[in-house]
């Protein structure tokens, strides 16, 4: 797919990955509208919006309904690492809204125009943690698993419409999203972490190639397939690292 001349909306456009994606899309000739809670200098047009509330998402949906959007990139997300029992109710609610509900609502707002033009693409940025749900990332993993399911179901619903759906699942990425405890986990478990530049390149490449499902990283891409058919094997493979993670919270 040629990106030159396309109108692309990117959520989370001010973040470590989002700003890089915006720069690459603009370099390819796209006109980029960035959505975030803070200014997005990497975008052509920046919209400050709240993806964590129904009112905030509704306002953004109204804007998008009245705009031509050729590609929507649902990239914004928040992450919680720790025992579910320690996660505040506010943070738990916000995690599902930002990681799953907001992408669904924004997608709904741009679909009528895409379907009328019989052209368009929804790009949902999930996570390997959504395909291989990790202990101590319970809400994040399950929200990202929901985004993967949303992408698959929507793709089937849009079959023959000219509107495509791409789902991309990066593994851990070295960004400011990671807390000190996440970095400690990565150290004690030897977790693979990719530079944000690599992930941004892969996202844009998937858009240009029109790929459907992308898992970034090896051996994670293999574990995704194993977990789908034999989750018990992955349970045992992850057990030792789960125990190491528990020590960060003095949990049994």
Written account of the structure:
By secondary structure, the protein is of the alpha/beta class. It has a single domain (7-247), classed as Rossmann fold (3-Layer(aba) Sandwich), CATH 3.40.50.720. The protein contains 9 helices and 7 strands. The protein has helices at residues 18-27, 54-65, 89-117, 128-131, 138-157, 180-189, 196-209, 220-229, 231-247, and strands spanning 7-11, 31-36, 45-48, 71-74, 120-125, 163-169, 213-215. The chain has a 7-stranded parallel β-sheet with strand order 3-2-1-4-5-6-7, sandwiched between helices. α1 (18-27) crosses α7 and α8 crosses α9. The longest helix has 29 residues, at 89-117. The protein is globular. 42% of the residues are buried.
Concise structural overview:
This protein is of the alpha/beta class.
CATH class: Alpha Beta
Task: Tell me the CATH superfamily.
Answer: NAD(P)-binding Rossmann-like Domain
Percentage of residues in helical conformation: 40-55%
Tally of DSSP helical segments: 9
Helix/sheet category: alpha/beta
Please give the domain count.
1
Average per-residue pLDDT, rounded, comes to: 92
Order of helices and strands: EHEEHEHEHHEHHEHH
CATH A-level architecture: 3-Layer(aba) Sandwich
Key descriptive features of the protein:
252 residues, alpha/beta, Rossmann fold, seven-stranded parallel beta sheet, 50% helix, globular
